[in-house]
UniProtKB/TrEMBL annotation:
Compartment(s) of residence: Nucleus
Name recorded for this polypeptide: Centromere protein X
PANTHER family: CENTROMERE PROTEIN X
Biological process annotations from GO: DNA repair; kinetochore assembly; replication fork processing; resolution of meiotic recombination intermediates
Organism: Amphiprion ocellaris
Membership in a protein family: Belongs to the CENP-X/MHF2 family.
Subunit structure: Heterodimer with CENPX, sometimes called MHF; this interaction stabilizes both partners. MHF heterodimers can assemble to form tetrameric structures. MHF also coassemble with CENPT-CENPW heterodimers at centromeres to form the tetrameric CENP-T-W-S-X complex. Forms a discrete complex with FANCM and CENPX, called FANCM-MHF; this interaction, probably mediated by direct binding between CENPS and FANCM, leads to synergistic activation of double-stranded DNA binding and strongly stimulates FANCM-mediated DNA remodeling.
Keywords: DNA damage, DNA repair, DNA-binding, Nucleus
Pfam families registered for this protein in UniProt: CENP-X (PF09415)
InterPro entries hit by this protein: CENP-X (IPR018552), Histone-fold (IPR009072)
Length: 81
């Protein structure tokens, strides 16, 4: 994951290799558009997880987001996606 000017972005090659690792047949191909779409979905997912974790930490009067805050928001986050 590379960060430029506060923007979250994932490398296309990483997304492509990750998706291809789940293909059952070697003949299955992945288009460039599918890779870009998945990268955008991951970006939104990561941003939403960060925001929800921050809100959970604030609700518990904590100054810092911890893994416990992320663990608390994770079930609902997965259901929402």
């Amino acid at each position: 994951m590379a960060e430029k000017d506060g923007e979250i972005c994932f490398k296309k090659e990483t997304i492509s290799k990750l998706l291809c690792s789940f293909f059952k047949e070697d003949k299955t191909k992945l288009s460039g558009d599918a890779t870009l779409l998945m990268a955008e979905m991951l970006k939104i997912f990561v941003q939403e997880a960060a925001v929800r974790s921050q809100k959970q930490a604030e609700a518990e009067d904590c100054d810092q987001v911890d893994i416990e805050h992320f663990e608390k928001i994770l079930p609902q986050l997965l259901l929402d996606f």
